[in-house]
Design brief:
The protein has helices spanning about 10, 25-45, 60-70, 90-105, 120-125, 130-135, 150-160, 170-180, 185-200, 205-215, 220-230, 235-245, 250-275, 280-285, 290-300, 305-320, 335-355, and strands at about 1-5, 20-25, 45-55, 75-85, 110-115, 140, 165, 205. It is α/β, with parallel strands linked by helices. It has 3 domains: about 1-140, P-loop containing nucleotide triphosphate hydrolases (Rossmann fold, 3-Layer(aba) Sandwich); about 145-215, Helicase, Ruva Protein, domain 3 (Orthogonal Bundle), CATH 1.10.8.60; about 220-355, Zinc Finger, Delta Prime, domain 3 (Up-down Bundle), CATH 1.20.272. A 6-stranded parallel β-sheet has the order 1-6-2-5-4-3, with helices on both faces. Helix 3 links the parallel strand 3 (about 45-55) and strand 4. The longest helix is centred in the last third of the chain and has 23 residues, at about 250-275.
Length: about 350
Amino acid sequence: MQLRAEQLSSHLAKGIRSLYTVWGDEPLLAQEALDALRAAACAAGCTERQVHQVSGARFDWSSLLGEARAMSLFSERQLIEIRIPSGKPGTEGSAALQTYCERVARDADAMITLVALPRLDRSQQGSAWFGALDRAGVTIRIDTIERLALPRWIGERLARNGQRVEDGAAGQQTLAFFADRIEGNLLAAHQEVEKLALLYPSGELSFEQVEAAVLNVARYDVFKLGEAVLAGQAARALRMLDGLQAEGVAPVLVHWAMAEDIRALQRVDDALRAGQPLPMALRAARVWGPRERLFERVAVRYSRDALAALVEAASVCDGVVKGLSHRDWPADPWRALGKLLLLEVSAADRLRGAGRLALMS
């Protein structure tokens, strides 16, 4: 059985099951889900808790299986936590987890098990051990809160503390400001919401109050930058670029991510011209997840000349970030990246208004 994180509360209101697997790459939401499960386990009669941290190949899986076998000998119900930070239990661990799942079903009254995992790739999700966990219990996937959903998430968190922003456009502006300051750093967002609860009483918060209290704690990554560029979000993309520079990210890495998107667009275009359907072309270009939706919107609308011009611009920018000079480009690597960014965003903007684009130099 699979659940979204926001469904967990209503699920637990109907009773707790014997096995839960929590996986994803958002630490705050994963921790909250695990805390809710621990509280429900305690309410269900679990008076003892055992934690098994799987670190490397030295973990003794036989001891875990031995404890599970002995659980029925105890009168008290126990909470067992299995943490696998790497998401890779190995060959021995895979077999042990599958055996463990069989015993969980038999000893449901003796123990409740929580398995904590990081974000898993496709091969890990398709593995025998993860399939066994999914079949034997409840799987809770923890997804990152995307930028567009952040204002609503912040509003819901404020409401938990009895606070809210103004109605209408003014309130949306306040939430957008808040989201800009904490994007990519949900733990800090939670702290800022709690700080507002300490600073101000329940009720309506003004923009000035939020502005005065909320720090700029946003954290960005190069892949989110690429998504913003493909979406044509110039202001957000430039803010992210400044944030990456301030965090000390190497400009070569930023350029690589941007250039990869441009090359992927060209590969998709070549595949489409060769007669491949768009889904197949995207898979061949290794375009998945949120980027897939963005590519679907713009990839089919570029002209060959437009893509050639973008590839050339990325090549020139590559030289600049590695120390070469070009008369038409700024010498500073970050300013050069800003120019490449704006060329991509400009192309995206023109696409939305005019179909196929011929990018002008």
